Structure to design on (144 residues):
């Protein structure tokens, strides 16, 4: 049975693995440590203190990673294989910041613009490929 057809048994554990890998791969050490501490705290309300818009500031980024601001609508991102080479992969959608804190794990090809968080992280490969959204509607793709 493929991972796409197996039930997701513990989405929060999957999200924590993706989030930790994201922070360690794309954020400078200080910001990564703060975000991981907030995300792994016992209450999701602390996720509101995670500020995705920090990635628009170069000094918050980890050197060696690649960041590209995307100037296309979310619908284009969701349907263009250039942004997600494997649309059948399990994507982890983590809403933080001004979004209502939540985690959704689902096949990338099933995500719609309504599933896209106001502020958050959509992780496709832990520590290798993720989208970051901010409250202005901007999107950065982070890759390694």
């Amino acid at each position: 049975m493929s991972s796409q057809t197996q039930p997701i048994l513990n989405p929060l554990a999957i999200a924590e693995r993706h989030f930790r890998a994201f922070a360690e791969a794309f954020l400078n050490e200080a910001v990564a440590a703060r975000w991981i501490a907030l995300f792994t705290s016992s209450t999701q309300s602390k996720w509101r203190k995670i500020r995705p818009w920090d990635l628009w500031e170069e000094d918050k980024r980890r050197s060696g990673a690649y960041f590209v601001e995307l100037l296309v609508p979310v619908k284009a991102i969701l349907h263009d294989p250039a942004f997600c080479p494997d649309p059948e992969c399990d994507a982890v959608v983590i809403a933080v910041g001004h979004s209502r804190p939540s985690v959704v794990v689902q096949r990338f090809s099933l995500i719609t613009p309504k599933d896209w968080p106001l502020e958050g992280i959509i992780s496709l490969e832990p520590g290798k490929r993720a989208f970051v959204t901010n409250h202005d509607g901007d999107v950065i793709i982070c890759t390694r």
About this structure: The radius of gyration is 14 Å. Residues 11-143 form one domain. Strands lie at 66-70, 90-95, 102-107, 120-125, 129-133, 139-143. The chain is about 25% helix and 25% strand.
